[in-house]
Amino acid sequence: MWLHLLVVLGLILLYRWYRQSQILTNLTNKYVFITGCDSGFGNLLAKQLDKRLWGLVNNAGYGVGFGPNEWQTKEEFSKSLNVNLLGTIDVTVNLLHLVRKARGRIVYTSSALGRLAIMGGGYSPSKFGVEAFADSLR
């Protein structure tokens, strides 16, 4: 009986320690640049972190024209690639020196379709490019 109680108590303490270790300390004067913040997650994050640059959250995304590739136009591919991939690269390259100077962080919100392409159109290739670009920064 006592052994079970000690194990449960130990697990509770371990969980609390783990949760505390995930909290970033000393976040004063650290701020984040967020793309794709007109609604949803990006909007909520932007409202909370509206100050100076410490990090970059690439949240922008454009997905239209799902279906077989034969149904897609070059313009649909181009728009997806421009917003999802080239826009992300452009913002990151232009702000990378500021994030590095602040010893900040860069976060990419991509898609599972960036790893497993099950739909046609430019969305999956653009998100795969975001995944590859993010990996290249490590």
User: How many distinct beta strands?
Assistant: 3
What spatial order of strands do you see in the largest sheet?
1-2-3
Helix content: 40-55%
Classify the secondary structure makeup into a structural class. mainly alpha
Description:
It is a single chain. The chain has a single domain (about 25-135), classed as NAD(P)-binding Rossmann-like Domain (Rossmann fold, 3-Layer(aba) Sandwich). It has a three-stranded parallel sheet, with helices on both faces. By secondary structure, it is mostly helical. The N and C termini lie far apart (about 50 Å). The protein is extended. The protein has four helices and three strands. Helix content is about 50%, strand content about 10%.
Write a compact overview of the structure shown.
With 138 residues, the chain is mainly alpha-helical. The chain is 51% helix and 9% strand.
SSE layout and pairings?
Blueprint lengths: L1 H20 L10 E4 L4 H9 L6 E4 L15 H28 L3 E4 L14 H14 L2
Parallel strand pairs: 1-2, 2-3
